[in-house]
Design a protein that fits this description.
Blueprint lengths: L6 H11 L26 E3 L4 E4 L2 E8 L5 E7 L4 E7 L2 E8 L5 E8 L2 E6 L10 E5 L2 E6 L1 H8 L1 H4 L23 E6 L4 E6 L4 E6 L4 E7 L3 E2 L2 E2 L1 E5 L2 E4 L4 E6 L4 E6 L13 E7 L5 E3 L9 E7 L2 E6 L5 E5 L18 E6 L6 E9 L2 E6 L5 E6 L7 E6 L2
Parallel strand pairs: 14-22
Antiparallel strand pairs: 1-2, 2-30, 3-4, 4-5, 5-6, 7-8, 8-9, 9-10, 11-12, 12-13, 13-14, 15-16, 17-18, 19-20, 20-21, 21-23, 24-25, 25-26, 26-27, 28-29, 29-30
Protein name: ScyD/ScyE family protein
Organism: Christiangramia aestuarii
């Protein structure tokens, strides 16, 4: 999977997020229905910790269903992919999937219903929005095609990205995409954080797609921060939006991972942006962007998820305090990930909910208000695990 936009960045992040582990299967737009009522044999619950483990798999997102189940997209290293449910201490398979790339973002929109995204590939050849509904699956929006034909961060708004910066270590000069997490307005319209496209996209089940916002690089001394230069070509640190949440009072919150910095770790460079949910074609920039889109929280590191809690607070997940690079570089020790709650109006920290987490990838709140967390402990020699946190 690639999230980062320069090729060096994407190479590391793809290694981290495990496209290299998966065997890519042939695409089938209408997969056969596959329902398993019994617990999955490869997954298990550890009674001593209450964790649900998924050995030999990577999981990118979790979501809560109306009946209180925890939904997740499981990508086995064997190449099998499925949407699974955790309920009443058991793990079951809702549906098996045949997609060309890994399941990434997932959001339940009703019993047996969900939206999910799949990973992008070089030159935006893959990466789609799907709708799963009662045992059937269909691709509803071709996000890869939109990126190929538009590439908004290069050709719209401030046009801050030069496509030539993409030609690095086996990747090609041209459009790049990676539809990561998503948030649904309803059963017809969703917002998608395209991490490699540096955009928030709005897509519908009718296949209509437009860019909601373009996210621009972090700023240093009034200029976009440089990742590297190549002759007269300036390639900037990538914002890498990974997560998006929609509040009930009509605002959108976007968290960013932040790409590599030449000679340094991207610590303290990640931000959370805020803009009205009914706005369109916004440029989110600290230099010359729209006043409607502004930085709510800064000074963060490797934000991987944002969620609105049942208490109305904004919950922000930081992947690791030493940045995402700690998961792929042996010389960079892991410092632990955190979950923090913020006032969604002022951006002020309310409290640190959890710290020392092992590469947390996503959170969700069940119908009782309990907080669940996904930790990808496989990067520390373990498994992908989902568990309820004590708050």
């Amino acid at each position: 999977m690639k999230i980062l936009k320069s090729k060096h960045q994407k190479l590391r992040w793809m290694a981290f997020l495990c496209l290299s582990f998966a065997i890519i299967l042939g695409c089938e737009k209408e997969p056969t229905r596959l329902i398993q009522e019994t617990s999955d044999l490869s997954a298990k619950k550890t009674e001593s910790t209450g964790s649900y483990e998924f050995p030999g798999s990577i999981v990118f997102d979790i979501s809560t269903t109306p009946d209180g189940s925890i939904m997740l997209g499981v990508n086995e290293f064997s190449g099998n992919r499925s949407i699974k449910l955790i309920k009443n201490g058991k793990i079951s398979t809702m549906i098996g999937l045949d997609t060309e790339t890994n399941i990434q973002g997932i959001e339940s929109i009703g019993a047996g219903n969900a939206f999910f995204t799949t990973a992008g590939t070089d030159l935006a050849q893959n990466g789609e929005l799907y709708r799963a509904s009662k045992g059937n699956v269909r691709m509803v929006a071709d996000l890869a095609r939109f990126e190929r034909e538009n590439d908004p961060d290069a050709f719209e708004g401030t046009q801050w990205k030069n496509q030539a910066c993409e030609e690095y270590e086996g990747f090609s000069e041209g459009p790049q995409n990676n539809p990561y997490k998503l948030s649904a307005f309803d059963g017809e319209t969703v917002l998608v954080a395209d991490a490699a496209g540096n955009t928030i996209l709005q897509a519908t089940t009718e296949g209509e797609i437009d860019w909601k916002a373009i996210i621009t690089p972090p700023v240093e001394d009034g200029e976009y921060k440089l990742f590297f230069t190549r002759g007269e070509l300036n390639c900037y640190v990538q914002p890498v939006p990974t997560s998006v949440a929609i509040s009930e009072d009509g605002y959108v919150y976007v968290g960013e991972l932040t790409g590599e910095v030449d000679g340094d770790l991207p610590i303290g460079l990640s931000r959370v942006w805020k803009f009205p949910a009914d706005a369109n074609n916004l440029v989110c920039s600290e230099i010359e962007g729209s006043a409607e889109c502004y930085v709510l929280i800064d000074g963060l590191t490797s934000v991987i998820d944002v969620e609105i809690g049942p208490d109305g607070l904004l919950y922000v997940v930081e992947f690791d305090e030493n940045s995402w690079i700690s998961s792929v570089a042996p010389t960079v020790p892991a410092a632990g990930g955190t979950i923090s709650a913020y006032d969604p109006d002022t951006g002020e920290l309310v409290n640190e909910v959890a710290s020392g987490l092992v590469y947390p990838g996503a959170i969700t709140f069940d119908k009782k208000g309990n907080l669940w967390v996904l930790e990808n402990k496989l990067f520390a020699g373990g498994s992908a695990e989902v568990r309820m946190l004590e708050m």
